[in-house]
Write a structure and sequence with these properties.
The chain is an all-alpha fold and about 90 residues long. Helices cover about 80% and strands about 0% of the residues.
């Protein structure tokens, strides 16, 4: 459970930072942060979370290279952050 909570905290930290920078500032640095989180979600057998992160990684890579659609990235980002927030709320007493 501790690994799960730490993973959720890392997602929250990353998403807050990205919101402060602005979604249009998504970069390859974000991919470097998300890739290990995606791998960790697989190790914890959190398949749906992994799927959500993977969508953000794929669209984020396209946006970072100037080929993607920021609206699609925003949609995927919102899905991921909503999942993380709901998961975190369920774990608090």
């Amino acid at each position: 459970m501790e690994d799960y909570n730490y993973l959720m905290q890392r997602f929250e930290s990353w998403s807050e930072e990205l919101l402060l920078r602005g979604l249009s500032q998504f970069s390859t640095r974000d991919l470097d942060v998300l890739q290990p989180l995606a791998e960790e979600s697989l190790q914890l057998q959190m398949m749906f979370l992994h799927e959500l992160v993977d969508h953000v990684i794929q669209e984020g890579r396209r946006v970072a290279l100037g080929e993607g659609d920021e609206d699609v990235l925003l949609f995927q980002f919102c899905r991921l952050t909503q999942y993380v927030q709901l998961s975190s709320k369920q774990d608090t007493p």
